[in-house]
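Quick one before lunch.
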Amino acid sequence: MSAALLRINALNAWYGESHVLHGVDVEVNEGEVVTLLGRNGAGRTTTLRSVLGLVGRRTGAVMINGRDAIGLSPHKIARLGVGYCPEERGIYSSLSTEENLLLPPLLGAHGMPLDEIYAMFPNLEKRRASRGTHLSGGEQQMLALARILRTGARLLLLDEISEGLAPVIVQALARTITALKEKGYTIVMVEQNFRFAAPLADRFYIMERGRIVEGFAASELQGRMSMLHEFLGV
Amino acid sequence: MSETFGIPVAVILGQLTLGLVNGSFYALLSLGLAVIFGLMGVVNFAHGAFYTLGAFAALLGLQYFGVNYWAALVLAPLAVGLVGVIVERLFLRHLYQLDPLYGLLLTFGLALIVEGSLHQVFGASGQSYPVPDSLSGVLNLHFMFLPLYRAWVIVASVVACFGTWFIIERTSLGASLRAATENAPLLQAFGVNVPLLKAATYGGGVALAALAGVLASPVVLVNSHMGTSLVIVVFAVVVIGGMGSILGAIVTGLALGVIEGFTKVIYPEASNIVVFIIMALVLMIRPAGLFGKD
Ligand SMILES: Nc1ncnc2c1ncn2[C@@H]1O[C@H](COP(=O)(O)OP(=O)(O)OP(=O)(O)O)[C@@H](O)[C@H]1O
Ligand SMILES: [Mg+2]
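Model of the adenosine-5'-triphosphate complex:
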């Protein structure tokens, strides 16, 4: 078994006074696609935000590539090679599409070159001069993804990237994720859309009220369907 | 000679030109305020004090170190900008989580300390800064004789203002600054050192004020309170233009200088308050300011 690229241990997180994560343990190996499933409000977004240091307070351990990230500021955590697609996509309205794309600084030597990105997402090239928020929902999601691929981040944290998109766009996204997996990216996906996530993930975690309640490999998926049904209603 | 409202056109044009000189200072100062407010949410009441510091830096640099005008034009904003960075790191950064009122109070207190100290050391009477030789002539505009130095002030401010606008709107540094205004935590999660960006922004904003101070030093008396009354007008300019609007601050600053000049010709008694009357009108009709987004 390869080394864990991301290891979260006994992670607790707070928004102000409210205690949201209660001892979360997650392990993601290099090159794996891991999906966090759970109901609304289970704490999946908070888990990703905690990895990046974007919550009010957190305790426990977050190891990225063997480095302890819990005491670092968000910009130093990003520089460990982490790329983040937030749930709300985070496209800047005062920036053009291309400015959005070029905004995150390079984090490593192996960023995807711009021409490769434009080959992967041709619409972004066509609309490079448009205001970021004037793109369609699907294009904005492509932009949010392309933006972190350019930086050379090898650990991608993707929060509900399929949410609210037309089925053809979701299929295109699935192909993109598959391609990224082949290129060796390590991916943590938060998903509501089980049918999108199921064929892509190597492993699954299920969250409930700020805790991980189950973790299993894709090969065990068939045997877990009734349990998934109970937790997620899928 | 032709007349308008019974006033010679040459006189009107002359006042408009002088108004443009004042407008240049308004533009530079309100631009700095707008940058600081737009990007950091800080109402920088110390702006006038930094303007004064810029003028004093030029004056003392000349008197004690023989720093000439042209060098002062670069060095004084750099030095004052550095002071701004230190102020941000030491004090301001602790206030971002709090109500903007705290930043306003802190910078207001800072202004009092700076101006009080300068008053203590240098007294109330002002000193004059010599106009540099190469700018000491007079320009014949046919309707008036414009001192060359005042023409230079207009040119230098316009260049500095549009240079700043260019950096913010057209460069990748500017893209980061705009992104920080919109969603700073996400920008930081991308790997941008946002705390440093904020310190640099404050430093840059007050450096613009210091630049205005250096430009002003040959045309005003350099004294501890030179910024006090000016900054009140400049705040009105920012409110009229729309808090945080870069282009709005520049255009409004220049335009209000000209309007003030015009008022001096047609109704001199109102020239000191016309800016505030316009501010009141704008606040009634467009509370977000002429260039502001509601
Ligand atoms: N900024 C915040 N301040 C206070 N509480 C928050 C904040 N953001 C989330 N919470 C609370 O934290 C809990 C976990 O939220 P989180 O966003 O992590 O859930 P989630 O699993 O991503 O679900 P979903 O995205 O479907 O809503 C919820 O109870 C939510 O109400
Ligand atoms: Mg969520």
